[in-house]
Design brief:
GO molecular function (chains A, B): DNA binding; DNA-binding transcription factor activity
Number of strands of chain A: 3
Number of domains of chain A: 2
CATH architecture of the largest domain in chain A: Up-down Bundle
Order of helices and strands of chain A: HEHHEEHHHHHHH
Distance between the termini of chain A: 49 Å
Oligomer: homodimer
Keywords (chains A, B): DNA-binding, Transcription, Transcription regulation
Strand order of the largest sheet of chain A: 1-3-2
Protein name (chains A, B): DNA-binding GntR family transcriptional regulator
CATH class of the largest domain in chain A: Mainly Alpha
CATH superfamily of the largest domain in chain A: GntR ligand-binding domain-like
Chain lengths: ~260, ~260
DNA sequence: TCTTATTGATTGATATCCAATCCTGTGTTT
DNA sequence: AAACACAGGATTGGATATCAATCAATAAGA
């Protein structure tokens, strides 16, 4: 793989881990020193990030981690809902027994993780559910679109006031699978919609985000060869946020 | 705008106009001489094209215009159908009178173009319909996803045996609008699906595509400043293809 | 004729340099 | 003291030249 792609992947992970927060300057010189490559390679990486919606390049000003607006957030969640509803409709028509089994098995694995108190694993599995869901459509184009939207929702999570609990929404997943398998498409789609709406409605993005890490500090754990085993989640000072990047951050709006 | 973005746009147009056909080598040196820029700028342009799915970069081999497979074609049309159906569902809920008026007006303009024999205009309007349709969702993220899918379908049209008539499917457009406005969402969605399915089913992509133009010839009309007024459609030797890039190439499968 | 080796071309990447632009800090003016 | 103007520094966007690695196609040899 090209060096610029590899670096783009690292930057992407750092952003998704909330180690590089929205608005953070991604200076060419600084990054080139961090990764020990030339500025041009960094430029190419930044172009890739910008094409993916994770960075924003301003002419003669440089690249910054994207700072999506509330409007952007709603549009991203709308698009994600649209895609997942569409996939749900396709699956309810076309999915074979093996597919349903895989979905049920995934939910079951997550259930066991929750039961055994392994929150981190449950979180990861909760994220993965959506990916598996879309993968079963056997449409790589759709998978890539969906993955990009998920990345952007993860970026959004850097911007919200992190005063929420993670519930992995095992119930929602199980119910979606159940409804779809029974052919009850419409309730399933409404459940998907309701889920995403409840998430985005809890967003409060007025606050400015201040980077707690310099790019050098943020990227240090990803450097130095295949050290990717311990991905190092995001550090947070304030709340009890465990730093997960779960796609299921569920905001408790009701009291 | 950055030079690499401008060049990427030109390359994109040339590909969508079928002047650069799938498989065509996009050599860095050649392009850098054509556009009179350094190789680095070209590399950045090619990265953008690859991210958009219009080019494919092979390590140490270079970039080529993407050569999507039949599988890719089906997946792209599936994704397009999914997106447009989802947008249709949203519009049937949320679109106001002004929106419906705009859609009806667009269809009417296309009807007039057809009636007056202005096929070229009718073709453009037929393409635009889908774009307008998605724009009314007021979701820029969705718009960009849709636009990318449309670009890829246009690329696909370089690969099919061009033995079909262009009918602008005014009827389909009018009917979709009519059905949606009446709240008959399901038939409208089925109509969208049927349309795209009929298109992709007519595809025959066994044939190899041979470039009839060198990159230098293909790109010449786009160079030299704002000469973009006469976009120069694609040249075709064989059929009566008028060179349109209409999103509504409708294959007459039934006899 | 088939296999192997060499050569040429192209890509990936680096270093250095330059122009244009933006930010900032200072100094001047009112 | 406040507002404005200007100059300098820093950063980006880009050009050029160069080098290593890899691929492809040809040429040499069995």
């Amino acid at each position: 793989m090209s060096r610029s792609q590899a670096i783009a992947d690292i930057l992407t992970r750092a952003i998704l881990d909330h180690r590089l927060v929205p608005g953070c300057k991604l200076g060419e010189r600084e990054l080139s020193e961090i990764f020990d490559v030339s500025r041009i390679v960094i430029r190419q990486s930044l172009i890739r990030l910008a094409d993916d919606g994770l960075a924003q390049i301003e002419r003669n000003r440089g690249a910054f981690v994207a700072r999506p607006s509330m409007q952007d957030a709603m549009e991203i969640y709308d698009a994600l809902t649209l895609v997942e509803q569409g996939v749900a409709a396709q699956l309810s028509d076309r999915l074979g027994p093996a597919g349903w089994a895989e979905l049920r098995q995934h939910v079951e694995r997550q259930r066991q993780a929750v039961a055994s108190g392994n929150d981190a694993l449950a979180d990861v599995l909760g994220q993965e559910f959506h990916t598996v869901f879309v993968r079963l459509s056997r449409n790589k184009v759709m998978q890539e679109i969906h993955a990009q939207l998920v990345r952007r929702t993860t970026l959004l999570r850097s911007l919200i006031t992190a005063d929420f609990d993670y519930c992995n929404l095992l119930d929602d997943h199980a119910r979606v699978v159940e409804l779809l398998e029974k052919g009850r498409l419409k309730p399933a789609m409404e459940l998907i919609d309701a889920h995403h709406r409840s998430v985005v409605r809890g967003y409060i993005m007025d606050r400015q985000v201040f980077p707690e890490l310099t790019p050098r500090e943020a990227l240090e754990p990803y450097l130095d060869g295949k050290a990717g085993e311990a991905p190092k989640p995001a550090p947070r000072k304030k709340t009890g946020d465990r730093g997960g990047t779960g796609a299921h951050a569920h905001v408790h709006t009701a009291k």
